[in-house]
Amino acid sequence: MSSAAPIFLFDKAVSCIGTDDSNDVTLPVPHAYFKSILTENNKGALNMWSFIIPNEKTENGIESFLVPTKKIEKVAGIELWENLKGKKIEREKSKIRKLWS
User: Which of 3, 21, 93, 96 is most enclosed, with most CB atoms within 10 A?
Assistant: First the structure.
């Protein structure tokens, strides 16, 4: 399973596109995006990989955007995988797991 959404940072101004259009429709431009991936291995253990990707041109590989899932929850003000409870899930949300091969 996966989850993804835009991130708006509260300490930065939000720019909009469409301000010069004649249709009176403007859209806020996100500062970044997040992606969180949840998998279950063949032994039933859950693994998570989460990323915060800035909304700007970059030459960095995807692994440079790995973050703990807890960081996304804090920055975006949401709870990911809210139906999963327990110490194992909290530990998984707090770690940065190496990328799969």
Answer: 93
